[in-house]
Amino acid sequence: MSEGHASGAEAGDRLATVLRPVRGNGFEEALEQILRVLRLGLVPEGGRLPAERELAERLGISRVTLREALKVLAEQGLLESRRGRYGGTFVLPRPGTAGGGAAELRRRTASVDLEDALRFREVLEVGAAGLCAADRPAGERAERLREALAATHDAPLADYRRRDTLLHLTLAELSGSPSLAAQYAAVRAGVNELLDCIPLLVRNLEHSQAQHTALVRAVLDGDAETARRVMREHCAGTAALLRGFLA
Q1: Which residues form the HTH gntR-type domain (predicted)?
Q2: Which fold is adopted by the domain 101-246?
Q3: pTM beyond 0.70, yes or no
Q4: pLDDT for 156-185, tens place per residue?
């Protein structure tokens, strides 16, 4: 089965962390939530979004409103609608994002309180790591974490950041707090918009992977103190990288 057809199953349960019934303007909130799915890489490039009926039900909106939101994202070059037996709505490669450089990073941070976003991310990440370790996941939950870690090790360079995001999102989901996971997804989507401007640095990735391995080991060992420390150092590394490119 191709990645495009497998993507629905891959994203299935995880979408519950991001897609919630809208409370205000159906069109605007649906647009925001679907865009968050794309920024987090919950459906990979070339992958297919869930069927319109499922998306509309998750968001609590009409299919007409959903189609309006999907049309806007298609006009932005993010999605493509295909007809036929294997049709659906597919995620396109994002134009002009990878390695946008310092100038693009500055442009994107102009309307963002970067320090606030980075601090909030650290609070959520460190908290999730500590909660996970204190609960010491076992069985299927532990296997989910191991598989997410293995996926980052096996990832081709072009797909590394998406797999990295999914590992961190798995930790947030395993924290036992759906509210924490939802808040983390929102924050990480914004951080990913900034990270897209920075080239992938091999030495940085090697260090990051060593931290990922130590983090997962601490969580599975039930060592909450170490899990929090490693995650705090990991978040500090990302923050330093962004500040460095902005300097």
Answers
A1: 24-94
A2: Four Helix Bundle (Hemerythrin (Met), subunit A) (1.20.120)
A3: yes
A4: 888 999 999 999 999 999 999 999 999 999
